[in-house]
């Protein structure tokens, strides 16, 4: 009888994720990495580690150092690095999941940068002459990561399959050398957005229609990003597995990086569920009140309107006027304003633009108006207390069952004080469209001037341009960004270039309906997985096959339809959008990453 051959025991696996944004909050990839951690720790436990750069300011808040022993290949590799005179930190990242993290102080490698650049040129013909300081930093970090991973592979002695997942070129300048030196690791490279795509989309009309016509190297030199684009392309071509975040970005990989990604890895969030369906509605009402307080202070000096008939819309993100669809949004708002006037709508729309632009300070007039409104509130609270006590006494002691004249309960001091405060607050000036004193006029201001959306009394669409990100210490709102989102009625993000797009997903997670576009990774993914996405509070603007004006008209019609909804309809929509948010929880999307890691091991073994 033949003996059945024994299947070799599967090796243990170690997963290492590398990103410039690890313990370093500088962009959207930080959100990807940070929110995914709990799901990764759940699967990998102590076999999961993150690598990144050491920055004292962020490390002080998010990093907890641990003692290093020689009990594991990882820790022995850290000790070896320190013996070479390099500064390496080991500990826990103080976020949910508390993963192990290794941070490299690239300043300890800086003296050798020129020598490393020479080797990079000799090995890969990547020119790094005269590059910006950030590129030098990534090269120094990359060399420390190369040394660490090479030593880890030696310490490991092939006992475990080491999978290293690099995010973006900034973390992967060492990947081509690791491949050339045949270091025993399996590699995955994820590009969340190509360098050239971001530059070209904002500068070339009909970018997607001519994407296959570009000479990638010529364009990289034209925009002064030759080194960055070359590192990105080399990492994409040398990795065992190339992935990206959407089918849209996969096209960029094909034409700019010279390789079609094996897998698409959609982005997720940690969706915090609430025990009762009504909870997110309560939170919406709570934070909407804070936004309403700002709106009263900003507009009611000159233009009071019915807050019960007012809708708060917003858009947010980096200041990329075309890429983020700010241009389309503004032109659609002009059309919406006209539609609402013609329809005799009783509603008012307040549209917030939340982005980051250089400014001198918050406009003193905006701050003063808010401060005076707070004083009016204090006066009213004092009067309310006085009237309440006197009304109680009068009601208890009187045989007259009719309501007394409340004016008799307010003494002259409070009457005069309230009247004077309101008088000093009221003005004939139009409400400001921008809350801060900008250092220079920008495309949003120029568009508002062109379209006439300048907070005129007759306008149904009011504009608040807030050129700074919202934090809880903000004196105008007193909310953090997540609370502000919950207080709004609709998020508007009709991007032209958006490899993924976290902003509409953040709306969904907070039960806020959202508008996206079919040129954003998120919008494209929604259209693939859900036919009736509009029924669930997600609207998608067609920017693939429509021209700009057609897309603006479509967006205006979507917004007008939303404005016409009843309060009951909006509550139902919020319940629906919140109920499907779990689709994007990392517990459901981690499987895409699992597949990429398994594929990387298989490809290296072959």
CATH homologous superfamily annotation of the largest domain? Glycogen Phosphorylase B
* Main pleated sheet: 9 strands, mixed
Shape: elongated
Strand content: 5-15%
| Number of distinct helices | 21
| Overall structural domain count | 3
The appropriate CATH architecture of the largest domain is: 3-Layer(aba) Sandwich
Low-confidence sequence ranges: 1-8
| Beta-strand segment tally | 17
Structural class: alpha/beta
How many whole angstroms does the radius of gyration measure? 28 Å
Distance between the termini: 32 Å
User: In what order do the strands lie side by side in the largest sheet?
Assistant: 3-4-5-2-1-6-7-8-9
Core attributes:
Rossmann fold, 3 domains, disordered N terminus, six-stranded parallel β-sheet, alpha/beta, 606 residues, 47% helix
Topology, pairings included?
Elements lengths: L11 E8 L8 H17 L3 E6 L2 H7 E3 L7 H11 L4 E6 L6 E5 L8 H12 L8 H24 L3 E8 L7 H6 L5 E6 L3 H7 L14 H7 L3 H13 L2 E4 L2 H11 L5 E2 L13 H22 L10 E7 L9 H17 L5 E7 L4 E4 L1 H34 L14 H14 L10 E3 L4 H9 L9 E6 L14 H7 L2 E3 L9 H8 L4 E4 L3 H9 L8 E4 L6 H17 L2 H13 L6 H20 L1
Parallel strand pairs: 1-2, 1-6, 2-5, 6-7, 7-8, 8-9, 10-11, 10-15, 11-14, 15-16, 16-17
Antiparallel strand pairs: 3-4, 4-5, 12-13
């Amino acid at each position: 009888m033949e003996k059945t051959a024994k299947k070799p025991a599967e090796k243990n696996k170690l997963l290492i994720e590398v990103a410039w944004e690890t313990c370093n909050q500088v962009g959207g990839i930080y959100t990807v990495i940070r929110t995914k951690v709990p799901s990764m720790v759940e699967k990998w436990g102590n076999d999961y580690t993150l690598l990144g750069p050491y920055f004292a300011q962020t490390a002080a808040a998010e990093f907890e150092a641990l003692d290093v022993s020689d009990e594991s290949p990882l820790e022995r590799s850290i000790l070896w690095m320190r013996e070479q005179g390099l500064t390496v930190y080991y500990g826990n990242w103080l976020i949910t999941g508390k993963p192990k993290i290794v941070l490299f102080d690239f300043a300890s490698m800086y003296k050798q940068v020129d020598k490393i650049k020479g080797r990079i040129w000799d090995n890969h013909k990547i020119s790094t002459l005269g590059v910006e300081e950030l590129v030098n930093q990534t090269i120094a970090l990359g060399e420390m990561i190369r040394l660490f991973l090479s030593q880890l592979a030696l310490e490991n002695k092939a006992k475990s399959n080491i999978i290293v997942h690099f995010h973006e070129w900034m973390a992967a300048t060492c990947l081509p050398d690791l491949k050339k030196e045949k270091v025993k690791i399996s590699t995955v490279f994820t590009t969340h957005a190509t360098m050239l795509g971001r530059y070209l989309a904002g500068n070339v009309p009909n970018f997607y229609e001519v994407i296959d016509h570009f000479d990638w190297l010529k364009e990289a030199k034209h925009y002064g990003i030759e080194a960055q684009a070359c590192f990105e392309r080399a990492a994409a071509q040398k990795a065992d597995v190339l992935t990206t975040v959407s089918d849209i970005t996969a096209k960029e990989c094909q034409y700019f990086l010279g390789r079609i990604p094996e897998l698409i890895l959609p982005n997720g969030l940690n969706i915090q569920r609430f025990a009762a369906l009504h909870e997110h509605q309560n939170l919406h009402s709570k934070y909407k009140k804070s936004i309403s307080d700002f709106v009263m202070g900003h507009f009611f000096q000159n233009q009071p309107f019915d807050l019960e008939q007012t809708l708060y819309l917003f858009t947010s993100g980096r200041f990329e006027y075309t890429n983020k669809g700010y241009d389309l949004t503004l032109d659609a708002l002009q059309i919406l304003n006209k539609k609402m006037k013609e329809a005799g709508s009783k509603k008012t729309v307040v549209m917030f633009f939340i982005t980051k632009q250089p400014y001198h300070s918050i406009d003193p007039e905006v701050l003063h108006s808010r401060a005076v409104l707070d004083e009016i509130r204090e006066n009213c609270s004092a009067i309310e207390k006085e009237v309440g006590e006197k009304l109680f006494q009068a009601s208890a002691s009187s045989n007259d069952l009719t309501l007394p004249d409340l004016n008799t309960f307010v003494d002259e001091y409070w009457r005069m004080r309230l009247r004077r405060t309101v008088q000093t607050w009221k003005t004939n000036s139009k409400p400001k469209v921008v809350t801060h004193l900008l250092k220079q006029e920008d495309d949003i201001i120029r568009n508002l001037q062109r379209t006439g959306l300048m907070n005129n009394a007759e306008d149904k669409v009011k504009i608040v341009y807030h050129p700074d990100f919202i934090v809880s210490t903000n004196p105008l709102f007193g909310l953090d960004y997540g609370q502000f989102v919950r207080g709004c009625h609709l998020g508007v993000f009709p991007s032209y270039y958006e490899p993924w797009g976290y902003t509409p997903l953040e709306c969904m997670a907070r039960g806020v309906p959202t508008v996206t576009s079919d040129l954003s990774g998120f919008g494209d993914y929604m259209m693939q997985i859900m036919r009736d996405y509009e029924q669930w509070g997600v609207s998608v603007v067609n920017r693939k096959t429509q021209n700009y004006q057609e897309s603006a008209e479509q967006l205006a019609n979507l917004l007008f339809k939303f404005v016409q909804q009843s309060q009951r309809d909006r509550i139902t929509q919020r319940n629906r959008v919140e109920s499907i948010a779990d689709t994007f929880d990392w517990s459901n999307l981690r499987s895409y990453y699992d597949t990429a890691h398994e594929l990387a091991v298989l490809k290296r073994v072959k």
